[in-house]
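Box 3.1 A note on notation
Throughout this textbook, protein chains are presented in two layers. The first layer is the amino acid sequence; the second is a token string describing backbone geometry. Keep the layers aligned when reading.
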Amino acid sequence: MHSESQQHPGPILTEKQAAEYAGFSVRTLQGWRVRGGGPQYSKIGRSIRYRQCDLDAFIEANLTTSTSEAGAK
């Protein structure tokens, strides 16, 4: 049941829309789904969907201030 206190996660995007929104290629998203390490997604039947809030969270979680930080994660 949906409660009014729950926040709406924002738009639900197709794989192509998600890639365009986040600046990744569709192939990159596909590779992450196989290997892991990418943003969360939903698979409904044969359809792949991404919540915009999950793409934003993935990008936020991967922010760095220098190239030496990137290897530390």
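Residues 12-64 form one domain. The longest strand covers residues 47-51.
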